[in-house]
Amino acid sequence: MIPFEALLPYGVIIIMFGVAGTGMSAAKLLREGGNKPRVHRDAWDKMMMERDMRLTKEYRKQSDEPIAPEDFKTSSVWRASRIWDD
Question: Which of 46, 61, 62, 78 is the most exposed place for a label (fewest CB within 10 A)?
Answer without folding.
Answer: 78
